Hints:
The structure holds 2 protein chains of 2 kinds.
Chain A: H1 5-21, H2 31-54, E1 63-71, E2 75-81, H3 83-106, H4 111-130, H5 134-143, H6 145-155, H7 160-189, H8 194-200, H9 204-221, H10 230-237, H11 240-265, H12 267-294, H13 298-317, H14 322-353, H15 364-367, H16 369-383, H17 389-404, H18 406-431, H19 448-466, H20 469-492
Chain B: H1 8-26, H2 31-55, E1 58-61, E2 66-69, H3 70-96, H4 103-120, H5 124-142, H6 149-180, H7 185-191, H8 197-213, H9 222-229, H10 232-255, H11 262-284, H12 290-309, H13 314-339, E3 342-343, E4 346-347, H14 357-360, H15 362-376, H16 382-396, H17 400-426, H18 439-454, H19 460-466
Helix pairs in contact in B: 1-2, 1-4, 2-3, 2-4, 3-4, 3-10, 3-13, 4-5, 4-10, 5-6, 5-10, 6-7, 6-8, 6-9, 8-10, 8-11, 9-10, 9-12, 10-12, 10-13, 11-12, 11-17, 12-13, 12-16, 12-17, 13-15, 13-16, 13-18, 15-17, 15-18
Amino acid sequence: MNFPILSSLILLPIVGALFLFFTKDKDGNNLTGKYVSLFTTVVNFLISIYLWISFDQSKSSFQFIEDRTWIEGLVNYKVGIDGISILFIILTTFITPLCVISVNNSVKNRLRDFLIAILIMESFMIGVFCALDLVVFYLFFEAGLIPMFLIIGIWGGTRRVYSAFKFFLYTLLGSVLMLVAIISIYWITGTTDVVKLYEIGIDVKYQNLLWLAFFSSFAVKTPMWPVHTWLPDAHVEAPTAGSVLLAAILLKMAGYGFIRFSLGLFPVASETFTPLIYVLSVIAIIFTSLIALMQEDMKKLIAYSSVAHMGFVTLGIFTLQQQGIEGSIIQMISHGLVSAALFLTVGVVYDRMHSRLISTYGGLVSVIPKYSILFMIFALASLGLPGTSGFIGEFLILMGAFKDNFLVAVVASLGVILGAAYMLWLYKRVVFGNLINEDLKKIVDLNRSEYFILSCLAAPILFYGFYPDPLINTIEVSVTDLISMHEKNLASK
Amino acid sequence: MENLNLILPEIFISLSIMFLLILGVFKKDSSKILVNLSLFSIFITTILTINETFSVNRETLFNGSIVIDQMSSLMKIITLIGGFLVLVISSSYLKSFKIYNIEYPILILSSILGMMVMISSNDLIVFYMGLELQSLALYVLATYNRDQLKSSEAGLKYFVLSALSSGLLLYGCSLVYGFSGSTNFDIISNQLNSDEYVLTFGIVFILVGLAFKISAVPFHMWAPDVYEGSPTTVTLFFTIVPKIAALTVFIRFLYVPFFNLIDQWQMIIVFLSIASMIFGAVAAIGQTNIKRLIAYSSISHIGYTLAGLATVTNEGIQSSIIYISIYVIMNLALFSCLLMLRRKDQYYEDIDDLSGLSKNHPLLSLCLLLILFSLAGIPPLAGFFAKFYVFKAVLEQSMYFLAIVGLLSTVVAAFYYLRIIKIIYFDKEKDKYDTDHSLWLKFSLTISTILILFYFIFPSLLIEVVSRINII
């Protein structure tokens, strides 16, 4: 048996959290705690990079598999990764250290508890992306609710209680049906092992209902229109680091779930329900982009833009084309980086001015130029300018969509224009214009840690914008495999 | 000559009750010794019972009126452990109300004896005898804090309503006896296979009586008042120990004498289960007293336990037993926390008293957080696995409606658990509570919280123990 590298990836943050438990907050600061959590998350990032390097891109099957009896005769603790999950794992381990650093500026009370919550959250998120058993997946998927509930509720803004409850109950409501489906799958096929289920397939007559049950959970988590309403609330009230985790990683769980489970396990049903997804995605893209245009709160605007971007993702996944799915994955990674960066940029000015309203700002470029430049990169990446990672994702998704359904693709393309509109308008109102607000004159530019975080995020956004090959190479084989398996299943039914 | 070794635990515990009673009468200020001695006797009884599980598969005694099998032994062990822990963490609470008397341990012991008889009963009369023995002890326990109006009220209410349900139960028993001509479960099982109209009445009466004992909706009305009024340690006893015995009897009745009449009772159990799950979840939302809230939450937990019984499979029964065991652990943990909310000799039991607890008592709050999320059934805590096994059994029988209603009501239930967590973690803090708790209290909280938190590492352990129970 090889070294259980994936399990150590999952366990390491928890070990870090245990160490943190013995540190103490002093005057709202906790240096040891910060170093411990930074060290843990960075080590985790390095391990995941090692994982990426030693990952064999030409093999289509799952790698680094660990398979252990867990509940006797029922569930095995099975984890493993393929080209798709590795990217999400790296995204997680990349974003979390940045969150830990960003805590410096934003979190003032109960720092230790906050860091513990973030570390535990990280381990659950990694677990979600490498679980190869439905029950194990469900376990990690649901367990993440606990730390996130606390992050929003304890460290959030004024309406944090309402938002935390909404977040928790919405997601839980979606997920319980998935649990019914998972147990039903066990009784139908006799296993919950994803790899085995890929091989044996699930009887067509059950697929539609099961697909819908999974859909109910993923749709809430994605979030898709019309169950997206928890997201703006949660985002707005969560502390910066919480919003970042939520936008960058938590939302990706659902997209990942769609690819891994909805497409992989229910090929016939996925085909049947494609129109439903198309309609909901297009509504999400157009409708939430329009809503985003009207927002006066920066965080809310970005939250709605997330819904629109996730609309692209679901659209791309269900085109069931190579380009579409690859585009969706890249869009998710890119959105993970970009939305994280945008929330952090909002966090930067919020920490200084304690206002998220767009009207508070204006003319920032003349006082804090460094900030304005980085903000511009992220805004442009968000609207999908060529040369940023956002472009690659959207472009591939639309290509896939054009192949599959012309009308949908045309309408979705309109969303790109709307995306440019709200993002540029936001940028214009915040950064350009005259410096009217007197308080703004005293605002200071990025400090070292903020500068570091934002540059860390800007680098991959630009790099993969110009040179997306490493990403595409990693996922290519897995996606091809997924699609060929999908077609094979369809043909056999 | 009957093999009396098989009922050695019962004999031992009855002898110790008599001995303790005499000791209590003749020796002054002997409550402390008495408590210790009763703990010791429970301990010995537990060992005797554990010993039994290894040697006996299924034996009957006294013309088949007592049965000793794997289920009875396991349930007795859980009852005894529950009783032991309740007794051990009661002392400081009772002392602060100046009701630390000799009666308390003796009453607890006699109700445990009654429950052990119930659990082993294979005969209508033996069953009724055990039931009444435990109920009589429980009536007195409910009024144990007799200077308080609420406690007396609780005891009286419990007595009146419980007597009513016992009456129904007896009437049902007499009807069943009339049709089968015997009081022995096995014989009844062979005799009853008709779908006589009046026989259904008998079954319904018996089920109603039993549903009352485990406080399933719509026979739950007594629970919130009694739970609120009784002294907290007695409430703890109420919420865990009698439920185990009543559940065992429930299983025994459904699967031995009434096994051929599944069509008649399955719908009733499904109804009781769904009603309890929904009502327990919804009614708990508006509560302000923690003990009342626990009453409603225990009602909904009973709903899940019954869902397992409704499946008519061994897996279903096993899942119910797993559920009740995990429920016992969670309730024990929750009450240990509740008993820690103390300033001087004053105990606090309003939800608002928990406000901002996490600032002053981080460790206690963390335990509460885990317990509450576990009660809400959020993975990876023990409560999730309890629900998982039950719904696995339910879905095996394709009872989708039951499963979906059950899972949706967990979402409703999650709301009020979250509300408590919100009060603990998000609200403003109040004064500190005392921290000089008895060692046993800390011990029971630590152990139960650890079990809740780390259950997921060895989830098959409990299944292995329970899988030896094969009723059908």
